[in-house]
Amino acid sequence: MRIYFSGIGGVAIGPLSRIALDAGYDVCGSDKSPNLITDELEAAGISISFDQSGEYLRSEHKKVPFDWFIHTAALPNNHPELVLARELGIKTSKRDELLAQIIANKNLKLIAIAGTHGKTTTTSMLVWVMQQLQIPVSYSVGSTLSFAPSGEFNENSQFFVYECDEFDRNFLHFSPEISVITSVDYDHPDTYPTEKSYLEAFHEFGEKSKKVIVWQENSTTFNPKNLITLSGADQNITIPGKHNRKNATLIIETLKHIPTSANKSEIYQAINSFPGSGRRFEKLADNLYSDYGHHPIEIRATLQMARELSDQVVLVYQPHQNVRQHEIIDQYSADIFRDANEIYWLPTYLTRENPDLPILTPQQLTKNIDPEKLHFANLDDNLWQNITTAQKSGKLVLCMGAGTIDGWIREQLAKD
């Protein structure tokens, strides 16, 4: 089978293309510009074009016809490549249908990591631990990893570990052997207009799973018949961050349902040596970290972890998506930011917006935050000067957001 991936540098599409390659399919694709994921894929031998006009798709299709065109959820209906694929009679779909087919064709058991927060870290952690314990594993993680590719197919594996996102109702296309639920807090208002619809989707996901591992506080969302509930973090886990220790506790429980000869000591050693994943409290330089978090609960958890490492924490925060800000504005409280000594607040990164909603300003979003620790900023030379000054004085600088902030920080570091 020959597959074309449009948006191949995306955090979900990229790993899937690598899995398809490893599973024996002929793969190529395109994206708007290079990034860490496309670098990784090109190194693996995948041909990628950064011209999405349709010319590359047409020329490659002439050489050997494509059987399937996979695209990101963000691809507009009138995108030149999507329009051309339909004209050429190529089957088109989003990523979930292909992944479900690969899992079924290879007779793999799915371990799905789902939840509002912590999916990437928990998925990465389970992959890391299984590899350390010599358990063959196929997987897909929505981020770059320091210890392995973002996605991989292992022909010796019984299990497929998947970061199963609720956005666009993606997770409802799967029937997992084990589902691990990290948390359930209302999010993605562009997909779920009400909290009730969000919780109903998680309930439906649980119904499609053979086993569901979940925290006691989220258990009422699911059917008690297939639930395994946990109530507190394992005290033998020593990695930084309360939320990371809770995520690791979920991994301990998951491993009870995976055949392994490893003893408890080996399991704890593997978990406590976890090196982390890209964009999740990722160290970019001395005293400088990048994190994808953009929900108040994620912000509070990551700041708590930063506080374990330093008593002087500077937060640089870029809100993500105006439609989401309308939903969470009242959650931006002094308590959420209590572990930050200083806050540099950027304008909201705009994507997939409702044109009828007014753009909330930084001043509106920070109405409940201590003004003495607050600065309004932009991604410019002045902000970079403030960041480097804080770094050099020994303060921990944490840059958070799912928009352009991470790329901008890396660009500034490359210049220095």
UniProtKB/TrEMBL annotation:
Q: Where is the Mur ligase central domain?
A: 113-217
| SUPFAM superfamilies attached to this UniProt entry | MurCD N-terminal domain, MurD-like peptide ligases, catalytic domain, MurD-like peptide ligases, peptide-binding domain
Gene Ontology biological-process annotations: cell division; cell wall organization; peptidoglycan biosynthetic process; regulation of cell shape
Q: Give the source's domain of life in one word.
A: Bacteria
- Ranges for domain Mur ligase C-terminal come to 279-403
User: What GO MF terms are annotated?
Assistant: acid-amino acid ligase activity; ATP binding
Question: Any keyword Thylakoid?
Answer: no
Residue ranges of every copy of the Mur ligase N-terminal catalytic domain listed in the record: 3-106
The record, for Gene3D superfamilies, names:
Mur ligase, C-terminal domain, Mur-like, catalytic domain, NAD(P)-binding Rossmann-like Domain
Keywords, A to Z, come to:
ATP-binding, Cell cycle, Cell division, Cell shape, Cell wall biogenesis/degradation, Ligase, Nucleotide-binding, Peptidoglycan synthesis
Pfam families given in the database record:
Mur_ligase, Mur_ligase_C, Mur_ligase_M
So which residues are the signal peptide here?
none
Q: What is this protein called?
A: UDP-N-acetylmuramate--L-alanine ligase
